[in-house]
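User: Show me a protein chain along with its predicted structure.
Assistant: Here is one chain, sequence first, then structure tokens.
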Amino acid sequence: MQDVWLMEKMAHFNREVIPERRMHAKGWGAYGTFTVTQDIRKYTKAAVLQPKAKTDLFIRFSTVAGERGAADCERDIRGVAVKFYTKEGNWDMVGNNTPTFFIRDVHNFSDLNRAVKRDPHTGRRSAQNNWDFWTLLPECFHQITVVMSDRGIPASFRNMHFFGEHTYSLYNAKNERVWCKFHFKTEQGIKNLSNEEAAKINGMNREYHGQDLYDAIERGDYPKWKMYIQVMTEEQAKSHYENPFDITKIWRHKEYPLIEVGELELNRNPENYFAEVEQAAFTPAHVVPGIGFSPDRFLQGRLFSYGDAQRYRLGINYNQIPVNRAKCEVNDYHRDGAMRTDGNYGRLPAYTPNSEGYWTAQPEVAEPPLEISGAMWRYDPKDDPTDDCFRAGGDLWRVMTEDKKKILISNTAGDMKPVTTNIKYRHAVHCLHADPEYGKRMAKALGLPLAKVKELAKLTNDELNKATLDPEME
């Protein structure tokens, strides 16, 4: 016990592990730059999006369901979070490699994550839990089709697109607002892995995607993405045939074309994984003047949950960690708390308003006030007759080539092999709603009689869910 250095070493070692992210625990990161190549000033006054602006950034790629030690090449969506160090403060864009998401009601957020995590009884991943949850919520259908397609396992982070997913807002110097979706298209080309290729790689190198990203940057083969936006006016949103703020829906490119903005390049690897990748913290609540939010209820929930997760994981002063710190002077007038590493605002007033003029509101940078109308539901009505959860999935099926359709059917049937028959019926019915051929081929692959699938397809969603409660149904 007198060996003080031994005590120090062991005491520190016992406390080195911090809580891992509940989701997106396994991730890799890199630094880079974003350069604006086009002029979109008519849509936004954000300095980061002005012509010729060049902004440093940090990006983190991740799987979603896996823990810190999970394999990179699992069938899963890939999280992509970008921190733009703008001259007006940090802008965090939190998204995935898919343009939509599984759910639209934030009340289901923790439940989705628990369904794809480990079963509380067995401690193992459960296809039964996963598909039970997915098939009870028809809004999941489009995302299921994407994840079970060949794009469910990207060959590398460099070979995939990524998206902001949510509907955000942009507003210009005149405070005129438009709704916006962010798209980043890979310049390396899309490449994916089959289940067999992924299984072989996972058996040899569980850090395959991390190594690929690191090696590419080290050899000077800097990955690049073109950034685009889709724009919808407030008037267009009022008459759009779907809820434009529903994250499970896409905006068709023919109706709302992609508008090029600039280019994102990754060109520097972190020096220390823990300090810069593990401690990187993102929240969609971090925006800058010219970029705002929308009535997307799922986004509204994320505005709180992401920052709160970081306060738990890293501490209340997580924004002072170097990788998270803004590159310009940012004042939030928060005080105290564990690991306060700056001057804590010294002798300045700790309250507002005050006679010294500190911490005053800045209405000139606030986004325009939002008009809200219509009924507000705490939960989505699952049988809303105006809502079509299957259109986008059906459209995706119809544009797939035959070889891609075969891969989708095979991947889905293989993934659902251990799942009970009642849940298989639910998914086959959803496929039938999306496209008759999709439903017919899925029923055959799952070993289900098509006549019964068609009969179940006549039911409302609530009736279907009740009719498929029995795991022993034939």
